[in-house]
Amino acid sequence: MFFERPESGERAILVHIDMADEADRESPKELEELALSAGADPVTFLTGSRSIPNPKTFIGSGKVEELRDLVRLHEAELVIFNHALSPGQERNIERELECRVLDRTGLILDIFAQRARTHEGKLQVELAQLEHMSTRLIRGWTHLERQKGGIGLRGPGETQLETDRRLLRARIKSILKRLDKVRKQREQGRRARSRSAVPTVSLVGYTNAGKSTLFNNVTDAEVYAADQLFATLDPTLRRVELQDVGPAILADTVGFIRHLPHKLVEAFRATLQETTDATLLLHVIDAFDDDRQSHIDEVHSVLGEIGAEDVLTLEVYNKIDMMESAQPRIDRNEEGRPVRVWLSAVTGAGVELLFEAISELLADDIFHEQLSLRPEEGNLRAQFYSQGAVLNEMVDDEGQISLEVRLQRKDLLQLLSRMNIAPERYLGADVNKPEWLHS
Question: Where does this protein hold Mg(2+) (predicted)?
Fold first, then answer.
């Protein structure tokens, strides 16, 4: 990493202020989970309430005094705010407390830095770190004057801060160029899947909802899964077989969180593209969580931000093993389509219902019809048999063949195209209809 991260086990004081604006409110419990996920050792909580933040120190002068006493009492090495601080506020608080101060964004960035496994993930995290820290560089260089002249000391005539900013801009430019290459490689992979008409099913949800555990249960992928926030950063793709659909790609992605820093959303654009371009989203929800609805709303907000709000979505209510009366089931809408599946990723209860619901939603474009073939169309009949699409066959006295076939509409179109048969003959006016079902 370009910047040093704090070592784990630092004694930390957590600061949570309830703001008058509900939209700016954070969860104190979530801050503690974030701090623990980062490896900090929270020793105490400082709470309070304000109508608006103090422009200089975010909290008032009385709270600053109280916080200074707590730092000395607990010999804390770190103070973590459950809010986004401006560079000036962060600098002023550090000056008052004489210890390191981290805001919510910096804490999430640190967790991301610890979790990144792949080269792409590390690049994305470093980019977000650099952009976040670029406005905070002055904090580390306030004691330095202009570089002195002399043998071996002649510099470009700029302050150390200016030198560091120039190097930082060069590093950001280099990372952006490398990430652009990664994005192009991912785009090629997506185009290849699109050409082969392989649907992509992407797991999304609030962090720690159980996405990776479910992914492992379904695919035996052994992806890192833990009861902590942001256990997964790097997208993992696996091939699965679905009844009536055939092969599909299942993608495990990074979890969302309230007020996910915009720089992180931008940095992880290539990763989140797996969500935007998915055929179906599995929105994994912690059914046992008291804040379930607010987490659902936050996921919808992030999906809107990345342009994935219109992708077909199936809700997956996970962790029913922790609920007394919940049983595995599929909830359907008025049209009978699956909208929600209740299951446990840990025990596997209800996973077969998830496969059933996914297959049902992705198989919406199934051609299931009784076809009449002339005796000379034996080659077409053989093609249907080679695809395993024939359910029943009858031949009348005149040699007319009646086939009951069931296959995906795209496969039927490809078959007819190969044999130079006009699709209108079998599909009629429905040939260009995007979602078409005969049964």
Answer: 212, 232
